Amino acid sequence: MKHTKVKDLLNSTKTLHEVNAKGWVRTFRNNQFIALNDGSTIHNIQCVVDFENTPEETLKRITTGAAVSVTGDLVESKGAGQKFEIQVKKLEILGDSDAEKFPMQPKKHSLEFLRENAHLRVRTNAFGAIMRVRSVLSFAVHQYFQERGFVYVNTPVITGADAEGAGEMFQVTSLPLDNLPKTEEGNIDYKKDFFGKHTNLTVSGQLEAETFAMALGQVYTFGPTFRAENSNTSRHLAEFWMIEPEVAFNDLDDNMDLAEDFIQYVIKYTMEKCADDLKFLEGRLLEEEKSKPQADRSEMPLLEKLNFVLENNFKRVSYTEAIDILRNSTPNKKKKFQYIIEEWGADLQSEHERFLVEKHFKCPVILYDYPANIKAFYMRLNDNTEPGKETVRAMDILFPGIGEIVGGSQREERLDVLMEKMKTIGIDEEELWWYLDTRRFGSAVHSGFGLGFERLVLFVTGMTNIRDVIPFPRTPGSAEF
Ligand code: ATP
Ligand code: MN
C-alpha cells in the first residue's frame, strides 16, 4: 500500500477508509496518541493507537524519533487542534529510536546544541520549517529569472583568477603539502600542480557571468561561493550560496529596479507557498524575543515585517547623503559608534548601516555612488566627479536586522578606464586578459549584483544566526558533517 503524505491527509476534504502514513514519532502520549511528522508540513498528524489490542512490546517501541508506518481510517478528530486523525488499525515500527539516547527530545533545545547536531536538528519543527522555506525560496529565485528570460549560468567553482578581490580565498591544490615542488628560485612550483597554475575556490562568479551577459543579454548564477572569512560573525559563512544576475545594457538605476523587484517577488512567492511554516517561525521569534530587552526586540512580527518590505519602496540614498546623516547622528556625536564618521570617504561599518536602516529610515535602504577607493576595480567611474572625490556606480542594499544583503554595481565598460584602474591598484592585466576581452570586443553598459542567499533566508525566516539557515554550516574551526 502506498503511503500518503501527512500534508495531504491533513488537507483532505473528507474522511477516508484505510490510509497509510509513514513518518517519525514526535511524541507519544497516554500510551495512545502518536504525533507523527513526515516532513511534508510543519503539522503532525495525530494517530490514535488501540492500546488495548496492541502488544505491550510494540507500545514500548513507539518512542520519540522512531520511524513508523501506520494504517487505519482517516476520521474526524474528537480532540481540539486538528480536523482529522488516523484511527490506527495496524502499526509497524520501521526503525527504533532509543529514547534515552535520541538527542532531539520533545523539549526546547538551544540553537547551539542543535548546531552540534545539524544532522538531526532538521527533525525539529523550527528547522523543518526553515529548510522548507529555503527550498521554496530557491525555487522562487529560478522562477523569477526564468519567467523573464534570464539564462542560468554555472560559473566555475575552481577559479584560476586571483583578482576577484571579494574576500580571502581557499586554495585548491593537489600538491603534496609535506613535500612541495620548488622552482630554482625556491618558490612553490605551481606548474607541477594539477591545473599547472595556482587555483582557488571561487569567491564570486561575477567576472565569468559578465562574459556571458555580453552574449546572452540577461544571465544569473546561483551557486556556492567560498570565502575564508576569518571573523566569526552571525552574518558570514565560509561556504555560502550566492545569486548573481548580470544584465547587458542595464545602468545602475535599472540594476536597483531589478534587485528590488526580485527581492519583493521571491518574498511574496514564499509567503504564499509557506504560510504555515512562516506562521510557525513568527511564533518562534516572538517566543525567543521574550527573553530579550525591549530595545533588542523586532519592531514588527515576522509576517508584518515581510509585508512591509513588499509594500514599501526601498529608500535610495547616495553615499554622500548617508555620510551627512551619519555625521550628524546622535551616536556619532556622542561617540557611541565604535568607528566615528569624521569625513567623506570613510568606509561604512555594519553599525552605520544598521543605524541608517533600523533607526533613521526604518525601511530597506539602497546606498549608491560610493567613493571609488573603497570599492572594487570593476565598478563604473561616475562622470563629472571632483578630483579626489571620485565615486563609482556601486549600490549596496541594506536590510533591517541583517545589514548588507546585496552588493552590486554598474560595471566599467570603458577599456582604457578599466585598465588604468587595474594598473593603479596593481592587478595584472595578463591575468584578466579574458575579462578585458569583453571590453575589447563589443563592450556595452552592463550591471549586476550579488545577493547572499543565506542572508535572504535569514530575513524571511526571522532567524538571527546565519549558521541556522544553511543545512551544514562551514565557519572558522567548524566543518563537521
Ligand atoms: P560583507 O560586507 O557583509 O562582508 P561583502 O561586501 O563582502 O559583504 P559582496 O562581496 O558584495 O559582500 O558579496 C555579495 C553578497 O554576498 C553580500 O551582499 C552578502 O549578501 C553575501 N555575502 C558576502 N560574504 C558572505 C559570507 N561570508 N557569508 C554569507 N553571505 C555573504
Ligand atoms: Mn565581506
Characterise this structure.
With 481 residues, the chain is an alpha+beta fold. It has 15 helices and 16 strands. The protein has 2 domains: 6-102, OB fold (Dihydrolipoamide Acetyltransferase, E2P) (Beta Barrel); 123-168 and 203-468, 2-Layer Sandwich (BirA Bifunctional Protein, domain 2), CATH 3.30.930.10. The strands form 3 sheets. An 8-stranded mixed β-sheet has the order 6-10-11-16-15-14-13-12, sandwiched between helices. It has a 5-stranded mixed beta barrel with strand order 1-2-3-5-4. The model has no long low-confidence stretch (mean pLDDT 95). The chain is globular. Helix 7 runs antiparallel to helix 9 (302-311). The longest helix has 23 residues, at 125-147. Bound molecules: adenosine-5'-triphosphate and manganese (II) ion.
Task: Give the key terms.
alpha+beta; OB fold (Dihydrolipoamide Acetyltransferase, E2P); BirA Bifunctional Protein, domain 2; 8-stranded mixed beta sheet; 5-stranded mixed β-barrel; 16 strands; 32% helix; binds manganese (II) ion
Write the layout of secondary structure elements.
Blueprint: H1 6-10, E1 16-29, E2 33-37, E3 45-48, H2 56-60, E4 67-76, E5 84-95, H3 111-116, H4 118-121, H5 125-147, E6 151-152, E7 158-159, E8 171-172, E9 199-201, H6 206-216, E10 218-226, E11 239-248, H7 252-273, H8 275-289, H9 302-311, E12 315-318, H10 319-327, H11 330-333, H12 350-361, E13 365-371, E14 391-399, E15 403-410, H13 415-425, H14 433-440, E16 446-452, H15 453-461
Parallel strand pairs: 3-5, 6-10, 12-13
Antiparallel strand pairs: 1-2, 1-4, 2-3, 4-5, 7-9, 8-9, 10-11, 11-16, 13-14, 14-15, 15-16
